[in-house]
Prior knowledge:
By secondary structure, the chain is α/β, with parallel strands linked by helices. The chain folds into three domains: 6-64, CATH 2.40.50.140; 70-223, Rossmann fold (3-Layer(aba) Sandwich); 237-291, Orthogonal Bundle (Ribonucleotide Reductase Protein R1, domain 1). It has helices at 103-115, 127-130, 132-143, 160-167, 182-188, 237-242, 245-251, 268-274, 280-291; strands at residues 6-14, 18-23, 30-34, 48-53, 59-64, 70-74, 80-85, 89-95, 119-125, 149-151, 171-175, 212-216, 219-223. It has a six-stranded mixed sheet, sandwiched between helices. A five-stranded mixed beta barrel has the order 1-2-3-5-4. Helix 1 (103-115) packs across helix 9. The model is unreliable at 196-204 (pLDDT under 50). Bound molecules: guanosine-5'-triphosphate (GTP), magnesium ion and zinc ion. Zinc ion is lined by residues 251, 254, 259, 261, 264, 267-269.
Amino acid sequence: MSEDGLRRARVIAVGRNSAWIVAEDEDEPRLASLRRSATYAMPVPGDLVDARVIADDRVVVDGVHPRSFALIRRTGGGRTKTMAANVDTIAIVAALVEPALHFTMIDQLVAFAVQHEVSPLLLLTKADLAGEEAAERVAAIYRAVDVPTLILQPKAGRGIDGLRELLASRRALLVGNSGVGKSSIFRALGGIGVVGDLSRFGRGRQTTTSARLVRLGEGFLIDSPGIGEFDLDPMPATEAAWLFAEMREPATRCRFANCRHLSEPDCAVRRAVSEGRIAATRYASYVEIAGARPA
Length: 295
Ligand SMILES: Nc1nc2c(ncn2[C@@H]2O[C@H](COP(=O)(O)OP(=O)(O)OP(=O)(O)O)[C@@H](O)[C@H]2O)c(=O)[nH]1
Ligand SMILES: [Mg+2]
Ligand SMILES: [Zn+2]
């Protein structure tokens, strides 16, 4: 970054008044101030910004580029939180055990990815604790619906080369419950745990408190704090069903065109479930998403 130059840079982590950024033509992150009277919205990891070097080598963020996609999630109290910007891939991380596998959350995140036309990816951890059979059983459910799925053991390095290949030139966000192994995967791929003074350590456990990014070739990977739950925006059942790819074809054969696949007679989706052509866990997630909602 030259003295006078305005440079495009990628945001890797954000604090209250500053952000770690890495200029497109550099490798080393720099700490940049955010303008106090900023006309731009608070940047998040993945954002492209214009950064300017001012006196004493200080760097200031002048502006934030429009986002191609932002992952916004609802938090308690009806507020929203933007987790990351400009990602094209949502890497869902789920532990097979410890914490217990939460199918509904995986399915909601897959549905969210389908809804927003970003690619879902499933990364299953802790097969060493759950057993290979359990791991393969879960993986088979998602491979059957064309969600690329890897079984990883980040500390032992298992699956990391395959993941690196899958992520080549992608802009991916790691998302999942706390303790499932997101940061372990992030570190195994070369991400650094703590960037300057923006991250703080959780009490006892190393819970991630703010998102951060590592560049991977042409793309990048963002580590994020664990989420307790993930809710989709309310939508009609027919729309929810469309987000489950394996329901689309059977849904055309239900007796009623506006079938919600809940308790209607002659439902081809429920028939596919009872015949094992749709996984029972996937259908249960669908019911949870669609059940409480009007058709
Ligand atoms: N046995 C085993 N332990 C794992 C595996 N993956 C991760 N862990 C452990 O699980 C614990 C939590 O891992 P983290 O990477 O910190 O989890 P996280 O998803 O980043 O958690 P938050 O930052 O709180 O959201 C750590 O002690 C890891 O060493 C695995 O495949 N097998
Ligand atoms: Mg973490
Ligand atoms: Zn139906």
